[in-house]
Protein: SPIN90/Ldb17 leucine-rich domain-containing protein
Amino acid sequence: MDDDTIEYFFDNIESFYAELDDVLNRPYTTEEDAKRVTTQYIRFLVRYQQEFLKTSVEFAQVAYKLIDSKLCLDFSTVVLAHILNHHALVSQDKAELLVSYSLLLYAGKDEPRWMDFILLESIHKKRNRLFCKIMTEVRLGFYNCYKILSASFALCFEMCKLAKLEKEDLVLLDTPTVNHFLDLVEETRGDADESFNYDVIRLILVLNEQYMMSGMSDNLVLDVLSQRFGTSDTFSANLMFMLNRSNDTCVQMLILKLLYGIFTRASLYEYFYTNDLYVLVDITLRELCDLGDTKESQTLRDAYLRVLEPLLENTQLRSRPYKKQETYKTLQSLLNPGMQRKVNSTTKRLVKRILENWWEKLTGLQVNWCYDNGSSPNLSHTSTLSSCSSGPTTPADDLGVDEISAVMTRKEVNKKIQQDTKNPNIVVV
Structure:
């Protein structure tokens, strides 16, 4: 009998979860059986979405149920391909799209190789079908709630992190669409749940990266920002907040690439308020001092240095310098780190260029290129360096922006459940 013809009555969420387990435990032997059970599971979730899928925790619960099931263990790629090809790519039902997008997103975040599979399965004749569908639906105003926008934007972000889009895919974006993204950031600035706001910003960041990789002469993200002076204050402020708190190297790099684009485009030299630039200087000084010697840290440090030069030379800081001496001492410390530590050749080149173009040419001061006995400069009086900064930095144990996401990891779900004393019936995954 079709599940849609059966009337279910659930006393609580626990009995709902029990029925979900029954659906996943239905007999299967072939790929067609696996597809059938997957569809039944999705339809069941869609049917009771309004009652039992109201929060991120509840969506995470049902997603991890599917991911952890024997069905998914035996037919993982079949299940994912079926969700993509027979639900996400063809459905026009918003409730079904929210469920299918969420299942794909949680699967990909839980196991990176599954996101790789979803991406490859989505690409046909070099076009990313899922990205194209989502962008088309956004342009048509198809989505009418933040939940489905959040899931769709997060999916696009994860796919765009992994692979370069074709120019034909990027053409789907236009000025009104990018303006719409930025408007969403402003519209949701006061929301208690900040996750959607940051999902939109992450999408904008990765789209900027896609334009940079495309070789196209136009970058719609920068073009639109050039027209939005004074109307994207939340976006600019939250960029600084994210850079200050994020522990995700990918997100940090994406922010720095956007900042580099802004500070090297004449029409955007003064896009940020001066106070935001002061915050960025504080963050940069802290990171230049605190980043370690791993390859990832060196790459991130060099990215900060690439942004620092146009920040000092092209923005309001050119005429209104901030922490000039601290910046100089920090740069000198990178050339002379002491303790027999080697200086990365790229780092050395970037630092020397900043000192020559900013310190010598712009400020008119002389660089002391060497120190007695090869020792590093004394930074003990530089109060704004490292994690001791009195500036806008945050304690390491504060809530990081990476935790402000609609997609919850297993650890986050369990933590949330343990804190939720009002609903003891939620099952821990």
